[in-house]
């Protein structure tokens, strides 16, 4: 018997008592929740709302866009001011909140539409765990994680991305159908297409009020301004306003079902905006997201300032549903925070980047604490292809060149650093929230730099990160670059999967 089979066989034997205990615990929780009435399971429902490509640019977060429905939801629960995804790309980000693992652990390091996938079909996930414990599981919109067969949804409508925003009323109507038909407690994930590129200003009269470039300033983390960048920002805000309108309809449908008070509502963006220094980077504009949790059993109108990752959602949903939290998960349950705790759940928060489509690979790792952030670029000898990809695909190159020429030197340096990253980037997020001033070469910050390096190294060891070996990071980067932007399968499973933490199955 080889090592892997031996390990798994031993893990299965070890898990038998745990499985029996798990079943007993779930059954006891059901009895407690139904007051002893056989057949009735009144555990809380979960409505998980996921939007596309938007950071915390909401009214309640201080952005100049009207989002009354999400603002109201925040007033009914907890608004998290420092919530982050694991990777600023759709498939890796979604794989993390569904499996509770970092992309380098589960294998979904790039887009599913480019054939990147999880290492193992039987990777444990939130959907299956909730279903096994008696929840009815539903999905509206795209999954975007492979293989799809890993996720045993009971019900799934509107499969696909719908970036043209067709029939957006269906999302709430289909959700209402699922909710009304669910006799068991439910988990329903509703995935809206806004605010993904293209930034469509108005669809079927939504949003009601359309902003133009004359109404807004360009997103501040770009560091640049021009008529076209202001218009792009306005259209991005229009997408968010439309998203808010349709979420409002969804929440009204939940109230109409009579199940609002027994439902935890969680809203997140899957990563930041598809704009300069946002999506596909390890900068704040790509990684930082809105997170709102509202539940009748929790506090209201609370603002939580400490560091949160989307890997914390899986443990949170497990605790809410009366299920044991798998011991291998790196995330932390947020239930104490939902109930009012203001204590931090972690000292350091970790993020990463591998690839998006084959146009833009660039291995990166990042760690931040309360004030400082370190970005590690293991292939710093190479230019970052994501720089030119973003400029040529999402802004006018001539307009960008003109805007960059008018920008302060510190901003021009930041863009040059994005094009050709150094091995380390260090930012003081209190003084420099948009990450323009790299402190890594300043001796004054050596102690801070070394402390963050130590924390990052410890995390890479603990999570069996294959890019702890710079040669593996370079091999992955070169193999993707050698596809010449073509959709060619990368055999990264062959040399990255053995570094995966072996999860008991």
Short précis:
The protein has 505 residues and is of the alpha/beta class. It is built from 16 helices and 13 strands. It has 3 domains: 1-38; 39-348, Alkaline Phosphatase, subunit A (3-Layer(aba) Sandwich), CATH 3.40.720.10; 350-499, Arylsulfatase, C-terminal domain (2-Layer Sandwich).
Number of domains: 3
CATH topology-level name of the largest domain? Alkaline Phosphatase, subunit A
Question: Which series of helices and strands comes N to C?
Answer: HEHEHHHEEHEHEHEEEHHEEEHHHEHHH
CATH architecture of the largest domain: 3-Layer(aba) Sandwich
- Rough outline: globular
Please describe the biggest sheet, giving its number of strands, its sense, and whether it closes into a barrel. 9 strands, mixed
**CATH superfamily membership of the largest domain, which one?**
Alkaline Phosphatase, subunit A
* Helix content class: 25-40%
Q: What's the number of extended β-strand segments?
A: 13
- Average pLDDT works out at 92
CATH class of the largest domain: Alpha Beta
- Taking all Cα atoms into account, the compactness measure Rg is 22 Å
> Approximately how much beta-strand content do the residues carry?
5-15%
Structural class: alpha/beta
The number of helical segments is 16
Instruction: List low-pLDDT spans.
Output: 1-37
How widely separated are the two ends? 17 Å
Account of the 3D structure:
With 505 residues, the chain is an alpha/beta fold. The chain folds into 3 domains: 1-38; 39-348, 3-Layer(aba) Sandwich (Alkaline Phosphatase, subunit A), CATH 3.40.720.10; 350-499, Arylsulfatase, C-terminal domain (2-Layer Sandwich), CATH 3.30.1120.10. It has 16 helices and 13 strands. The strands form 2 sheets. Strands 1, 2, 3, 4, 5, 6, 7, 8 and 9 form a 9-stranded mixed beta sheet that branches. The chain has a 4-stranded antiparallel beta sheet with strand order 10-11-12-13, with helices on one face. α6 runs parallel beside α7. It is globular and about 65 Å long.
